[in-house]
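Lecture 7 notes. Example A: sequence first, then its structure tokens.
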Amino acid sequence: METISLTVGRILLGFYFLLPGITKIDSYELMGDYMALHNIPFVGVLLPITILLQVVCGLMLITGYRIKETALVLAGLTLLINFGMHDFWNSYPETNSGHETQNFVKNLGIFAGLLAVSASNNLRQWRLFGKEQEG
């Protein structure tokens, strides 16, 4: 049961990053404007990097490739996004501070899940790449 739980949890976290990364491609200009609204510098550089990290690292988590490193990269990205984009303590036009607070707290949970996944690298789980680990 632990193997199934760990594998499914890791795959779901991977989808949590993969799908938003893909949707950022279609809504590139809108996402860039949203980042600029939150005073994120270098949007032209940071948005493509974010998309690339979300898509590639999401796929890496899903397939079980370099789990520890991938989860730690996504944990760092999550913190940066959290403090930059879900800064509920600031007021922005057409944003709801309650919604941003909810996103901030949710992302702390995602961060915690990524830390747990990074620590699970040597536990038994199914992987598309590499051998299944024995715990």
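Example B, a different protein, same format:
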Amino acid sequence: MRMVIVVTVATLGAWCDSPAQSWSAGAQAIPLVTPADPTATRAVLTEGYLTQPMFMAHAGWRSLHGVLTLNFEGLTQMRGELSTGGYGEGYVDRRHPHAYVHELLAGVEDSVRGTHLSLYAGRGFAPFGSDDPMVRPFEKYPVNHHLAQILERVLVVGAARAGPVIGELGVFNGDEPLSPGSAPKYSRFGDSWSSRVTLLPARYVELAGSVARVKSPEVPDGHGLDQNKWDLYARYDRRTADSRLYGLAEWAHTNEHASGAISTSLSSWMGEAAVCKKDVMAGLRLEGTDRPEEEPLADPFRTPRPPSDLSNLGVSRWTILTLAVSAPRLLLKSFSARPFVEVARIHAGPGDPPGLFDADLRYGTSWMWMFSAGVRLKVGTIHDRMGRYGAAVVPEPGTRTRSNESHDMPGMPAMPSPAPMTHHSNNAACTL
């Protein structure tokens, strides 16, 4: 990974020194307070921290492009973000901090007879499922995060777009990060793959289907349970100068297996929607997601990582209704601050198979509340879609892209791009 970082950063530096280039950069962070009633301690717990501290940059020179996203959650919330129902990478009822190097890729893009082509390599998102929840209209991640995305892998991903059809294929290492600063198992590169096909049947509408085969994501040495994954989603996102109407419906399924025998079967359905007018945004999300239950450590929010064996205590079913409301942003040039609140009503019940997990024994009840209040702080330019590269990027109608912007610098020529990276100015109404 050190070599990838050096090469990519050097490439970004070369682009920024060139007079014929396009680039953008921005940062964000969310001071957040979350009370949960109850959570894994069987009591009301309130925590505050800085979540989603990120730096994002893009650069392009002719057909060459670079993507960089740094995530500093390992410094600001190593204990994880309180999120009842959330799980993954050794955390339970908390969202784990993501890797410091969230995305770091360099790629080449071109057009051949009307078909946009791209090839990217580095660390980032495998072509599978929906966008990172971080760039959607809710602060809390859905429980299905690890069913609907495959992220922070060393990968090579190719994409082609012809008319309304986009195809992607990626190969990567199956192992998940053990910690924000852990290096991937380079010897495992190529043991996993994923593919996604996207159809754009009408303006503002996006349909996508994905399949993935991931080898031993929980056990770095490669002797853990493998995963077969599927995902389908439909997305609608219409924006005007002062409004936005957004919707996403998603189904995801993961089978964990060893030697061809299915050990655990996990499913999720989710629907979320948001409407914004005059920079006031309201959103609603409903999901039902299966979660594998593991024996917690002395810390009730942690499970063994890697797991001590290949078994679990059964499956629980989480049904969560979340309401989010965001106030108009406070703007100062390229800086913005958007206050928001979220309220979630949570139910945990037995899954299939139910196993030994009992919500009443763990939490004292099967019905819970979770509240969140915070401020989205942003400066510069942040891209709206995370997890798509090159020809796979879906430019939103009416948004600014690499092909028609020059970073707000007078006299800088706009560079053509066969598959532009979609991102919004921080001053545009109804942006997060």
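Note on Example B: The radius of gyration is 21 Å. The longest strand covers residues 45-61.
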